[in-house]
Specification:
Number of domains: 1
Number of helices: 7
CATH superfamily: P-loop containing nucleotide triphosphate hydrolases
Largest sheet: 5 strands, parallel
Shape: globular
Strand order of the largest sheet: 2-7-1-8-9
CATH topology: Rossmann fold
CATH architecture: 3-Layer(aba) Sandwich
Order of helices and strands: EHEEEHEEHEHEHHEH
Structural class: alpha/beta
Strand content: 15-25%
Radius of gyration: 16 Å
Bound molecules: guanosine-5'-monophosphate
Helix content: 25-40%
CATH class: Alpha Beta
Distance between the termini: 26 Å
Length: about 190
């Protein structure tokens, strides 16, 4: 069977998408992790062009206006993030197996334009674990915590829109399952 070469990984906030994609970046160089553009400033240790293309709001406006974004979204009501068409096209033209780690709004946009891509939902091991991760830091007010939980419920309801679900019970195991779903051989054990 021919595996689609583009896989989209999405899921609720705080489910650990970033941890899984970092694990893949470090252990599976055969996976081409698409580098997104963002208006968020770099965090310590992040390199432009490696973790993100860090752009100004004006540059982001221009990328959208000139149709260079395959998808884009405002994440956590703050910064804009988007996938550049040319990044995906270059990787696919080079025969690479491409992974987009994006938010749910972005995943829905990709499904509109590339319905044959492979859509993978990263799910928490349980609702209780999700609550623990969301309010774990305890730095938010009760109102903010309720808001986060309400958002998480809505996000969890998106699971049936996806082709596959991977449960993030263990980062290495989840990453290996994802890599297998991409048609590659898991080998990090
Ligand atoms: P962070 O700021 O922690 O690096 O990422 C925050 C969120 O932005 C993550 O949930 C990630 O999935 C999402 N994100 C990263 N890149 C993109 C992108 O290109 N498009 C969309 N829609 N979301 C993205």
């Amino acid at each position: 069977m021919n595996q689609p070469r583009l896989t989209v990984l999405a899921g609720p906030t705080a489910v650990g998408k970033g941890t899984v994609s970092t694990y893949i970046r470090d252990n599976y160089p055969e996976v081409e992790l698409s580098v997104s553009a963002t208006t968020r400033p770099p965090r310590p240790g992040e390199t432009d062009g490696v973790h993100y293309h860090f752009v100004s709001p004006e540059e982001f406006d221009d990328l959208v206006a000139t149709g260079q974004m395959l998808e884009w979204a405002v994440v956590h009501g703050r910064n804009r993030y988007g996938t550049l068409r040319r990044t995906v096209k270059a990787a696919m033209d080079a025969g690479k197996t491409v992974l987009l780690e994006i938010d749910l709004q972005g995943a829905r946009q990709v499904k509109e334009s590339m319905p044959d891509a492979n859509f993978v939902f990263l799910a928490p091991p349980s609702w209780e674990e999700m609550v623990r991760r969301l309010i774990g830091r305890g730095t938010e007010t009760p109102e903010e915590q309720q808001q986060r939980l309400a958002t998480a419920k809505l996000e969890l309801a998106a699971e049936p829109e996806f082709d596959h679900t991977v449960v993030n019970d263990d980062v290495q195991r989840a990453a290996d399952e994802l890599v297998s779903l991409m048609g590659l051989t898991a080998h990090s054990h």
